[in-house]
Structures are given as structure tokens and as C-alpha cells.
Design goal:
The chain is of the alpha+beta class and 72 residues long. The chain has two helices and three strands, in the order αββαβ. It has a domain at 1-45: Alpha-Beta Plaits (2-Layer Sandwich).
Amino acid sequence: MWARDEALRLGLTGWVRNEADGSVAALIAGPDTAISTMIERFSRGPSGASVSAVETKATQLAEMPTDFRITG
């Protein structure tokens, strides 16, 4: 919920999901400055979270997402 709320505040689209190993995967799309801000927020995480690393990878999308969803 935290990642979705932050993404919506920044005007981003995409998705976020919890992985079986305890990590979180996300696809975020939007203005570069908003994406950079979201990556910084991922590095801190929500209150009480312990973030050990954030890995990023640029990708080409065939179609831009139109909203931001929690997928798992």
C-alpha cells in the first residue's frame, strides 16, 4: 500500500508486488524527476521497513500503464 500511495502522489503509473523471497518488485513509469524521487523513497521504504538494496533497470514498454496497481 505504501508504494502505491507514494507512486500515486508522484503521478506515476505501473505496478508493485511482494515476492516470495521477501523482496519487492515494481515497474514505475512517468516523468524522470518523479521516477527519481520514487527510487529515493524506495531506498528509505515505509516506517518500520528495512531496505538493504534497491536495484534499477531501464526497460522499453510496448504500452504505458494507465494506473498504479498492487499485483501481489
